[in-house]
Design goal:
single chain, 134 residues, alpha/beta, TIM Barrel, 6-stranded parallel β-sheet, 6 strands
C-alpha cells in the first residue's frame, strides 16, 4: 500500500492542523530541517501532536543527520543521494524505517492559502501548483 499524501509542516500548530481532518497523512518536515532543527525536535513534534503514522524528516545531503534520526527511532527520513546513501538505506531497512532519496509530492502548509486545500489534498482531489523555477 502506498503511503498517505504528504504535508510539509514547520511546527506543532501546522502538524496539528494537518491531522485535524482525521485522514491518513504523512507528515514531512521542511526541506533540510534536520540541518537546522535536528532530529530530536522532529521526534518531539511528532510526540506532541500524537502522530504515530508515517513521518519523514528531511536531512538534505547529510547522512549523519539521517543516521541520527533513524537511531532516535524516527519512522523515516529523506536523504539526498550521497556516497553514504546505500549504507544509511541498509541501516534504515534493518530498523524497518523508510529512507527516500527525495521528498514525495507534498502540500506545504507554510504556502499562503494551503490550509484551505488540505482536506482536498489528502483526499487526492487537489494538486498544488509547482514551485517557482529558481
Amino acid at each position: 500500500m502506498d503511503a498517505p499524501r504528504a504535508v510539509i509542516v514547520h511546527g506543532l500548530a501546522q502538524a496539528r492542523a494537518a491531522l485535524a481532518p482525521g485522514r491518513p497523512v504523512t507528515l514531512l518536515s521542511a526541506p533540510g530541517a534536520a540541518l537546522y532543527a535536528g532530529a530530536p525536535w522532529w521526534r518531539e513534534l511528532l510526540a506532541a501532536c500524537g502522530h504515530t503514522g508515517p513521518a519523514l524528516l528531511d536531512c538534505g545531503p547529510a547522512p549523519g543527520r539521517a543516521w541520527e534520526a533513524l537511531r532516535l527511532g524516527l519512522p523515516g527520513a529523506v536523504l539526498a543521494p550521497c556516497p553514504a546513501w546505500d549504507e544509511v538505506a541498509e541501516y534504515a531497512a534493518g530498523l524497518g524505517a523508510k529512507l527516500l532519496p527525495a521528498a514525495p509530492p507534498a502540500l506545504d502548509l507554510a504556502t499562503p492559502g494551503a490550509a484551505r486545500h488540505l482536506t482536498a489534498w489528502l483526499a487526492g482531489e487537489f494538486s498544488p501548483p509547482p514551485p517557482p523555477a529558481p
